[in-house]
Amino acid sequence: MDDGRLEALGQTIVSALPGAAIGHSVAFNQLTVTVEPARIVEIVKYLRDDPGCRFINFTDITAVDYPERAKRFEVVYHFLSPTLNTRIRLKAEADETTQVPSIIDVFPGADWFEREAYDLYGVIFVGHPDMRRILTDYGFDGHPLRKDFPTTGFVEVRYDDQEKRVIYEPVRLNQEFRKFDFLSPWEGADYPLPGDEKATK
Hints:
Number of strands: 9
CATH class of the domain at 3-135: Alpha Beta
Domain NADH:ubiquinone oxidoreductase 30kDa subunit: 33-154
GO molecular function: oxidoreductase activity
Radius of gyration: 26 Å
Subcellular location: Cell membrane
Shape: elongated
Low-confidence stretches: none
Subunit structure: NDH-1 is composed of 14 different subunits. Subunits NuoB, C, D, E, F, and G constitute the peripheral sector of the complex.
CATH topology of the domain at 3-135: Beta Polymerase, domain 2
Structural class: alpha/beta
EC number: 7.1.1.-
Helix content: 10-25%
């Protein structure tokens, strides 16, 4: 679909869903519609059922974290319309307490994607029948794809041979003092290196 037809489709969706679809943009031959998270089920039903859209293929749900914003998350939905031979992206802003309605009743395939967005970002989907972690462990602390999550994590997991079980321990980053040599190997070191004694003078 060319940019003109995508622009027209975006205008049609925004005008058909006042207050739900807030705005749209076309970039890199892709249509993005900004939506109100509380009305996502209504929007998705429209995109699936309207004869001018027919976005019947659910592709993905994920999130993006912008910690400097008041609403730090963008919940991102992707759909495909084989009828129009085009894709659409929906973006909804949310924070840690925003309750985003689950679209599982419209697209049952959204089940694990919503669980993943909850597990990795902490986005809360209400109306989901089984909202629990899917990729991290049961007692995992935090949401690992948030930008403020430490890259080392909070605990490390290892198998203890003496206790014959998996144990969790706080992360310890022990680092001995090291002297780094930043000389170029082409310049040569100003101190003797192992093996120098074999060279002829």
